Amino acid sequence: MSAQRQETVKRISAPDIAARKGGVPIVCLTAYTAPVAEILDEHCDLLLVGDSVGMVVHGLPNTVGVTLEMMILHGQAVMRGSKRAMVVVDMPFGSYEGSREAAYANAVRILKETGAQAVKVEAGVEVAENIAYLTQRGVPVMGHVGLRPQAVLVDGGFKAKGKTAGEHDRILADAHATAQAGVFSIVVEGVAEGLAQEITALVPVPTVGIGASAGCDGQVLVTDDMLGLFDWTPKFVRRYADLRGEIGRAVGEYAADVRARRFPGPAEIYFAKAG
User: Fold this and answer.
1) Alpha carbon of residue 58 to chain centroid
2) Signed CA dihedral, 228, 20, 13, 97: sign only
3) Of 126, 129, 189, 198, which one is the catalytic site residue?
4) Full-prediction pTM beyond 0.85?
5) 189 catalytic, yes or no?
6) How many CB atoms lie within 10 A of CB 38?
C-alpha cells in the first residue's frame, strides 16, 4: 500500500469551524497524547493541544516555561492519535509577541512539523498586527481573550476578568481587534457571563467558552480536569468522572496483589512447550 495514501476520514477544517457561528455548539477538549486523542476524536470537533500541557503533564507551576519544542512534540502525538477532529496547537509564551516575521516562522514550523490545522495565540490589541500577518499568509489562527494564562506573571495569578468597567472595555477591544485580524474563532476564558455574551454577539466568528457562558458558540475544558484526575478543579469545571480515585483504587489493588504474590498468575505468565 502506498505511503502516500490519503486518510479516508476528512478532518474538520478552520472554515468548517468558522461556519458554526450561531449553530450547533462546538465541542472542544484539550489533548496532549496519542491514546487520549484517539478516545476524544469520536466526540470532539476540535482538539486543542494547549500549553496547559506544561502544568497538566510536566508539573510546571504555570505555562510560561513551555517551549516550542514541547508543543510540537505533543502536537505530533495528538495528530497520530486523531483522524477527524481539527487539531489546534498553542503557540507558547515568547513565540509570537515579538516581530511579525518571528511569529510567522514559529507558526509555520508548528504546522509543518505537526501536520496540525491551526495555531492558537493569546490575543489582544497588542498582538493583532502579528495575527493579521499570519492569517494573511495562510496560517489559520484561533484567538484567545479574557483570562490569559501566559500573562500570569503580570496578573499575579489566574484571576477572572471583566468584572470592572475598565477590564470589560479592554477585553471587548481585544476581541474586536482579534476578530478583525482574521482569526477563525476565539477562545473566551474566565470572564463574567454578560461579557462573554457581549463578545459572542460582537464578533463574526465563533466563540469557544471556558469559564465564560453557555451562550458561547462552543465550549472547551482541560480534559484532565473534567475527568477528575486532580484533587482540585477550578470553579468553571464540571467533573464528569473521578479517574483520580479510580486510578488510586486500581493501583492499590495491583500493589496488594504483588505483595501477596497473587500477580502474576497463570493467565499472565508464559510456559515452556512440552518436548
Assistant:
1) 15
2) negative
3) 189
4) yes
5) yes
6) 15
